[in-house]
Amino acid sequence: MASDSDTYDYIIVGAGTAGCLLANRLSADRNTRVLLLEAGGKDNYHWIHIPVGYLYLMGNPRADWGFKTAEEPGLNGRSLNYPRGRVLGGCSSINGMIYMRGQARDYDLWRQMGCPGWAWEDVLPYFKKHEDQRALDPADFDGLHEQGGEWRIEMARIQWDILDAFRDAAEQAGIPKVNDFNRGNNEGCGYFHVNQKSGIRWNTTKAFLRPVRDRSNLAVETHAVVDRLTLDGRRVSGLTFRQGAAKRNVIARREVVLAAGSIGSPQILQLSGIGPGALLRKHGIDVRHDLPGVGENLQDHLQVRCAYKVSGVKTMNERYQSLVQRAGFALDYALRRRGPMTMAPSQLGAFTKSDPSRDTPNIQYHVQPLTLPKFGEPLDPFPAFTASVCNVRPTSRGHVRITSPDPSAHPEIRPNYLSTEEDRRVAADSIRVTRRIVSMPALGKYQPEEFRPGSDIDGDDALAKAAGDIATTIFHPVSTCKMGADDLAVVDHRLKVRGLEGLRIADASVMPTITSGNTNAPTLMIAEKGAAMMLADRQA
User: Looking at 130, 289, 476, 493, which residue is catalytic?
Assistant: First the structure.
């Protein structure tokens, strides 16, 4: 029999974006014992805290799981690196730091899909509960923002003439200038708000975990890899995890909460015998609960990285070539916490429609004062900028499926990018919209010249194929344990796994459909709302 030291009220799997907030909220009652498990290590690597350090984190086993997608037909046979945080703070420790809620339409659609309590008016208070909005003047909050919460939001601390010119060009193309993308309809062009504090990355460890680490009722275990959940009939009663060669069994009096993300959560369920029966039997796993939707419905944002050479304006490409300038970057950061080392992967954003028939903006831009053939390769040696554009409401659906009963084996990740005719059409139209923006007078003085995909490429089929050659993930996998009431739903509207007791999921995997923008802030909202549900059930 397990000792009291092995028994907790709540066991949270994953100390990432969602898990750190959950641990904070659930352990607020000192009579509630909480265990937080993280497969990675501590977030004490210096590149985690320097914003530009994301370049040294993706693909680095110190902070990244190192996943890859399957070869994708829509990408003309290419496989993509698929970074996911494996460290305290999870993806908030390695991501692009962009604060983006999505559109009111996204959440209203969730309600229509059988998720009562998840409409925009329902979720807005949970965004605001942890918000510390410092990028806007409080006079402009209009009831949509708050200050004083744990989640710091600031303006970027660097400026580029080429980005200002792109913003002017977007306005000339009919995309208005805005200073806040988080009001419910994010149409417009403006600078992203970022999760930084005075030029330093603000991750969920700093925001939610460190302030409560002295709570005696909160235990945090790192390098803890979950083998499988423990089931007692239809109830999940705990789990088994490994730390190096040691194996531990722990019991949850109330609930196990999966917050391992859109890859980790379905993988743990499948390894535990919870998921599509045929897949589990294929790998010799006893089917404890046949739940067809586990690992299905994968959605992600695919960005088409259009690139333009320019002249008469500075970009990061040529500045980075100079050792003297790079030394200046480091000095500027050391002395003032400003300059290129504070850069998020993208500083300027825009939302617009790929064609006039859309009810709200369906494409998003991440504009960068640099170009490179692909992540991890050197910058191009000439002045240039990238106008990445993604379809924020893709119709392609993929999956995450285990490849072995061994928990250390990476699952198959197949997003099925550009597998629908609509997604291929939006990709082609997005390149056309980009060309229209770049043709405006505000950018004309810099003589932009398209070299990816190439100005000679035209026609729907040719543009869609070219998109497949240059597009890459923007790292937003969601929906593999979707919320809802249909046959593929994994959790109900209170985040409880359907057909089981004692198990919830509170991370990006529960989104019924992907939000119209970056997914970190919506994941925090899901954790905030999920924690409130658990606390309400405890008091009932």
Answer: 476
301 catalytically annotated = no
Q: Is residue 310 pLDDT above 70, yes or no?
A: yes
Please say if the pLDDT value at position 435 is more than 70. Answer: yes
Categorize the per-residue pLDDT at 374 as very low, low, confident or very high, splitting at 50, 70 and 90: confident
Nearest alpha carbon to residue 11 among 272, 262, 253, 288: 253
Confidence grade of residue 2 (pLDDT, cut at 50, 70, 90): very low
pTM of the shown model: 0.97
Query: pLDDT, tens digit, for every residue of 184-193?
Result: 999 999 999 9
Q: How far is CA 112 from CA 25, 234, 356, in A?
A: 29, 29, 24
Helix (H) or strand (E) holding 509: none
Contacts of 277 (CB under 8 A, 6+ apart): 287, 290, 292
Other CB atoms within 10 A of residue 55 CB: 14
Confidence of residue 1 (pLDDT cuts 50, 70, 90): very low
The residue count of the chain comes to: 540
Where helices occur in 301-420 by DSSP H, the ranges are: 316-321, 323-336
The answer, yes or no, to whether residue 178 has pLDDT greater than 70, is yes
Q: Residue 31: CB partners within 8 Å, gap ≥ 6?
A: 217
DSSP per-residue letters across 85-152: B-BTTGGGGTS--B-----HHHHHHHHHTT-TT-SHHHHHHHHHHTEEE-SS-GGG-TTS--SSSSEE
Strands 188-191 and 348-352 come out as antiparallel
**CA separation, residue 6 to residues 31, 101, 145, 219, 347 (Å):** 16, 38, 41, 11, 46
168 has a pLDDT exceeding 70: yes
Q: What is the DSSP string of 200-251?
A: EE--HIIIIIGGGTT-TTEEEESS-EEEEEEEETTEEEEEEEEETTEEEEEE
Q: How far apart are CA 425 and CA 415, in angstroms?
A: 18
Q: Could you tell me whether strands 449-452 and 302-309 are parallel, antiparallel, or unpaired per DSSP bridges? A: antiparallel
Q: Strand 200-201 to strand 196-197: parallel, antiparallel, or no bridges (unpaired)?
A: antiparallel
For residue 368, the cross-strand partners are 386
d(CA 221, CA 1): 21
Query: Distance between CA 56 and CA 46 in Å, rounded?
Result: 10
Please state, rounded to an integer, the average pLDDT across all residues of the chain.
96
**φ, ψ (nearest 5 deg) of residue 92:** -70, -15
